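Schema walkthrough. Field components (list of strings):
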Amino acid sequence: MHIRIINPNTTASMTAAMHQAAQHQAATSTTVTATQPDAGPVSIESHFDEAISAVGVAEEVLKGEREGNIDAYVVACFGDPGLLAARELTRAPVIGIAEAAFHLATLVSTRFSIVTTLGRTGIIAEHLLEQYGFRHHCRRIRAAEIPVLDLEHHPDAAFKRIVEECCRARDEDGIGAIVLGCGGMAGLTAEISREVGLPVIEGVSAALKLAESLVSLGLHTSKHGDLDYPRPKAFTGTFSELSNLHFPLTR
Amino acid sequence: MHIRIINPNTTASMTAAMHQAAQHQAATSTTVTATQPDAGPVSIESHFDEAISAVGVAEEVLKGEREGNIDAYVVACFGDPGLLAARELTRAPVIGIAEAAFHLATLVSTRFSIVTTLGRTGIIAEHLLEQYGFRHHCRRIRAAEIPVLDLEHHPDAAFKRIVEECCRARDEDGIGAIVLGCGGMAGLTAEISREVGLPVIEGVSAALKLAESLVSLGLHTSKHGDLDYPRPKAFTGTFSELSNLHFPLTR
Amino acid sequence: MHIRIINPNTTASMTAAMHQAAQHQAATSTTVTATQPDAGPVSIESHFDEAISAVGVAEEVLKGEREGNIDAYVVACFGDPGLLAARELTRAPVIGIAEAAFHLATLVSTRFSIVTTLGRTGIIAEHLLEQYGFRHHCRRIRAAEIPVLDLEHHPDAAFKRIVEECCRARDEDGIGAIVLGCGGMAGLTAEISREVGLPVIEGVSAALKLAESLVSLGLHTSKHGDLDYPRPKAFTGTFSELSNLHFPLTR
Amino acid sequence: MHIRIINPNTTASMTAAMHQAAQHQAATSTTVTATQPDAGPVSIESHFDEAISAVGVAEEVLKGEREGNIDAYVVACFGDPGLLAARELTRAPVIGIAEAAFHLATLVSTRFSIVTTLGRTGIIAEHLLEQYGFRHHCRRIRAAEIPVLDLEHHPDAAFKRIVEECCRARDEDGIGAIVLGCGGMAGLTAEISREVGLPVIEGVSAALKLAESLVSLGLHTSKHGDLDYPRPKAFTGTFSELSNLHFPLTR
Amino acid sequence: MHIRIINPNTTASMTAAMHQAAQHQAATSTTVTATQPDAGPVSIESHFDEAISAVGVAEEVLKGEREGNIDAYVVACFGDPGLLAARELTRAPVIGIAEAAFHLATLVSTRFSIVTTLGRTGIIAEHLLEQYGFRHHCRRIRAAEIPVLDLEHHPDAAFKRIVEECCRARDEDGIGAIVLGCGGMAGLTAEISREVGLPVIEGVSAALKLAESLVSLGLHTSKHGDLDYPRPKAFTGTFSELSNLHFPLTR
Amino acid sequence: MHIRIINPNTTASMTAAMHQAAQHQAATSTTVTATQPDAGPVSIESHFDEAISAVGVAEEVLKGEREGNIDAYVVACFGDPGLLAARELTRAPVIGIAEAAFHLATLVSTRFSIVTTLGRTGIIAEHLLEQYGFRHHCRRIRAAEIPVLDLEHHPDAAFKRIVEECCRARDEDGIGAIVLGCGGMAGLTAEISREVGLPVIEGVSAALKLAESLVSLGLHTSKHGDLDYPRPKAFTGTFSELSNLHFPLTR
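Field assembly_structure (string):
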C-alpha cells in the first residue's frame, strides 16, 4: 500500500517532519511518500494562503494519479485546503488532517478542544467543524499565537507555548482530549501528550491511519454524484495544462 | 494487537459471521476474537432489546479487561448499545459499528443514506446521527423491512430486498455512499457493493480498522473527565458482582 | 389514577424520598406508588451505572404491566435511563424526570441552567438536551461536585453546595429558572427555591404532573411506529424470562 | 384553582367551544373561565391577524390580573400570539396551545406531524418549532386548506378534510402522533383520534393540563431576567391606558 | 424612490433622529420620509412593548399603502416588531433594522457581537438570530444597561457606556464587527466606530440601503405563499377599521 | 463609486454578460468594471474548477488593489470561490453572488429554492447555506442539468429548462422566491421572473447592490481579527510574485 502525504505548503523541512511522523505510524506493509507543491506559500496562516495552496494540492494529486501507484492521499494542513477538489480527481481516498483528527478525537472522548497556532486561523477550523458535523463536540478553539514556522525555527519556545495552552484546555474546558491544530506539530504529539496527560490527537498520523483503513477495506472516493471526476474542459493561461483532463488519468 | 468484537446479541452464528468479516479485514498482526453475552436477546430490533443488550456489552468488556490482553473493543450492533458505558470501563478504545460506518462514509462521499433492517429502528440511527454530528450528512434512513434474523434464515430473500433498497437510495437520494444499518449484513457488503456500484460501508470492518488505527497511534479512551472509570459502589441483587469494581481491573 | 414512580437506583431511602415528594404534589384522586429494581446500582453517576439501571427500569415496567392497574410511569433518575425502552413496553405514558424538568422550565423562563451532582454526568444531560431539542434553552450545566448519596448521608453540606451553585447560576448565567439535576434533590426543591429566589424545577414532581396530565387527556404512548411493542423473541441466560413476551402483557 | 382561557380571536362561539373542551378536561377542583378580546380579528390566519390579536391577549391578561384571582392563563391560538408579552405581565404561568401540544406530543411519540388549517400559516408553526426546540421532532406540517371559521360553519366537511390529512400523515410521515394545528379543532380531537388510530394532541386541553401542573407545583413565570414585569412607561393615543402600569397589578 | 421609515415607538424626537440618519445615507434620488404610530409605547424594551408597537407598525404600513407612492418600508426598532405582518400588507419590500444589521455584519466580518441597551431585550435579539439563521455568526449579546430614552435624555453618559461595552466586545469576543442593538443609536454610529476602530453596523441606515437595493432590483415582497396578502375578514371593536381590507389597497 | 465585478471563470462573453447585467442595475453614480482571471477554467462546475478559480479571484483583487481606485468587489460565481481569501486582501467590501442572492431572498420571502445548472454543484450551495446560516431558509436545491456554457451556446434550450425547473419549485416546494444558482443566468432574470411569477433573485445584481450599500455606508471589510491582511511571507515557484506582500497594497 502506497500512501502519499501532500504538504500543502512549500517548506521542505516541514514535509520531511510530517513524512517522518507518518512513517513512524505506518503499517509495515505501507509505503509512505511525501511531497509538496512546486509553488505556493511557505506556511498557511490565512484564507489567502489556503486558497493558493489548494492549487498545489490539486496538482500534487494529479501528479500522483499519473504516477499511477498511489492508494490514498493525505492533505497535511489543518485547514484541509482543496480537500473536496482533490477527492474529485481520484478514486483513491483523500483524507484531510483536520477531519482525521476530529473523527478520532470523538472516538476517545465526548468533547475536545483544539490548540492551534494563530488565533486568526480559528475561523477556518470553526467552518470545518460546522461542515463536518463536529461543532458541538469541540468546546473551544485555542491559539498559542505562534506563527507556523516558529515550530521549525523556535521549537522549544513553541513547544512551551503549546503545552501551556493545552494545559489550560485540560483544566478549564471540560474536555477529554485535545486536537493539535497544525500539521507542523506532528513531531511533538507524544511529548505534548506526556506533559498534558490527555489523549492528544494530531492529524497527520490520524489521517494516515484512516487512509490505510479505507484502502484495506477497498473503499474508494465515490464517483457517484458530487465527487465524480470533473468534466473535461478548457483551462486558460498558466493553468492550460489542466485542460481536457480525462479521468481516471492512469487508465 | 488483540481486538475483541462484542456481538451484543446472543446469536452465535451472527457472532461467527461478524468475526469472519472482521478477520478478513484485519491486519496480519492483529488477532481478532469475538464474543457475545451469556444473556440477552437473540437479535436487537427495539430500544428494549438494546437496553438489555447493553448489560451484556458492559459485562463482555469487564471480562475482556480481566483477561487483560485486549487492545480495543468493537460493539457490533448498529445502535451502538452501551457504547459510552463500555468506554468508561476501560482505557482501551471502544468503537461502535454505527459510528464507525458514519465516520468512514463521510470520508468517501459528501452525503450518504442508511439501509437498515426494520423501519422501527430508524429512530435509533437518527438519534445517533444527531449525537455524533452527522445529521446533515445522512440524506435518508431506509428500511428493507426484514427482521434481523432473516439475514441468517432467509439470506437470499434478505439480500434481494437490501439490494433493492440500496438501488433506490442510489437513484433517488442524491448520495455518494450507502451505510448498511445492521451488523448482520457484514458478510454481504462486497456483493451488495458490486450490485449497487457505490461505496457501501459496513460497520464491523469499519470499526475494526478504526480500532486498529487508534491502537497503532497509542490513543486510548480518555480517562480525564466524563469517560473516567466509574466510581466504585455497591450494586444489588443479580448485579452484585459489579459492586466495588476498582479500575483498571487488570492492574 | 395510579402513577408508578420507578427509582432506577436501588437505594430504598431515595425511593421513599421521591415517593413522598411525588405524593405531596399528586392530585387527591391520584394514587402514587414507588418502586425500585431488585438489582442494580445504589446510585447512578456514570453511563455504566445508567446502562445497568435501564434493565431495572424495564423490569419494573413489566412488573407494573402485569399488575395491570398502572396508568403512567415516572422514570426517576435525571439521565432518563431506559426511557424509550420503557415506552415500548406499555401503552401507558412513561415520563423521565430530566425531560419533565426541561419541558416545564421552558414554560416559565426563556433560558435555564442545570445544577447537578457530579460534573462527569453533565455529558448525559447534554446529550438529553440535544435529543429533546432544548440545547439552546439551557445556558449552562453546573455541578455541585457531590456524590449522589451525599444527598442522603450529608444532606446539610450537600444542600449548602447546591444552593451556592444555584446562586452562581442565577447571578452569572443570564437565566430565569434552574433545573435540579438529580432525583435525590426532590425533597429540597422548595427550600432551594426560597434561598435562590428563582423558579427551581425538580423532575420528580414535574414528571408526576405531566403523567397525570397525559392520563387525564387519554393520551397514551403511541403504538404506531417506532415505540410499538417489541417483537416477541428469544432472550437467553439470565434474561430468558423476557422471551416471547406478548404485549400488551395484561390483555 | 382558576385558569383563564384567552381566545385571541373574537369569535364567541369558538371561545365557547374551547371553554367547553377545556372544562371537560379540567380537574374537578379547577375553575375554567374563558374570554376573548373586545377588539380584533374573528379568526387568525396570517401574521397580520396574529399581530393584532396579540394586543387583545395582553389586554385580557391585564384584565385578569386586575381581577386578581387567576392562577394561570392559556393563550388559545395555535400561533401562540403574544405569549412572551403575556408572560411579562404576570407571575402566573401562561401557556400557549402550540407549545403545549408540541411538548405533550414528544412525550408519547418520537416524531409527530402537524395538521393545520391553511398552508400559509405553516410558517408560523415552523418558526415556533424552531424557537421551542422541536424542529426535528416534527416531520411535516400539513394543511387541510380550510379557513378557520369553516370549523364553525361547515364542521362536517372540515372534519372530513382534517381526517383525510391526518390519515396521510399517519401513513406517509413516519410518525407516532399528530398535533392539531388550530384551537378551533379542540372539540374534534376525540373523534379524529378514533378515526386515525394515533395519539392526536390538541393544544387547548394540553395547555390546560400544563397550566394546572405548574400551578400545583407552585411554579410561576420567572420574574428574574427577561420575563420580568415591563418597566412602567408612557403609552400614547388609544394605548394610553397602558401607561405607567405598576406590576404586579393586583398587589 | 420613496422609502418610509416607521419608528415603532411614539417618541417623535427619535423618529426625527432616525429620519436624519437615514436621509444622510440615502441616494440622492431617494426620498425618505419617517413616521411613527399614533398610539403605542414611547420606547420598546420588552416583549409587551413590542407586541403593542407591532399594531402601530401595521397601521403605518396600511397608511403608507393608501398614500400609494411608497416603494419600501423600514421597521426601525431592533426587535423587528411586526415585520412579517407588515410584509403581508404590501408588495413593497419591508426591512427590519435588526435583520439589516445582521446581514451587513456578516458581509464585512466572520463573527460579530451585538451591543444593545437593556439586558432583558437580549432574548429578543437571540430569537431573531435563530429565526434569521445568524445564531453562530453572533458571538455575544452585550447590554450597556441603559434605558432606550437615555439615548435622548442623557446622550453623553449613554454614549460613554456604549463605547465601553463595544471596546469590551472588540477585546474579548473574537469578533470583527459590532452591531448596535437599538435604532436610537443611529446618530452615534460614526462616532462609536471611530472610538472602537471596528466596523460598527447600525440598522436604520443598513435597512435603508437594503430597501433601496431591493427597489432598484425590482424585487418585491413575495405574494406567493405565506407572505400573501391577508384574507379579508371581520375585525371587531377598536380594530373594526381593519375589516375586509382588500389588497393591494391602492389598486 | 467604482465596483469591480470579478468573473472567476475565464469566458469573456460571460464576463461581458454579467458586466451588462450589473451595469443595468448600478446607480448612475457607480462605475462598474468587469474582469476575469488570466488563467483558469472556462466554467466552474466542480470543487476542482472552483479551487483553481479562487487563485484567479485573489489575483484579480490584488490587481484591483494596485489600481487603487476600487471601492468594492463582486465575486461572480455562485460558489463564492475564494471569497474569504479575497476579503483578507483588501479593506474594500467583497461580496459573493451566492451569499448576496441568499440574503436578498430572505428579505422578500420566508423560504426559497435554488435552481442551478448541474446537480453535482448542489453540494457547493449546500455547504454555503450551512456556513452562511440559511440552511433552513432554502427548501430545495434543484438542477436544470445543463452545463454552464450551454447558457452561452444554447440559450433558448437552457432558458426553457431553467423555467421548467423554476415552475416546479414554485408549485411543489412551498416557497416564496427562487434563487438562480449561476452567474451565467444574470441576463435571464427578468424574463424568468415574468414566466414564473415569483420574485427571482440573481446574484450578480444582488451583489452589486449590496456592494453599493456597504460603500455608501462607509463599511469596509474588518481588519480586526480573522479577516485581517495576510501576514507577509515567502511564496515559491510560479506564485513567487505573491511573496512579501505588504498591505494595504496601494497605501
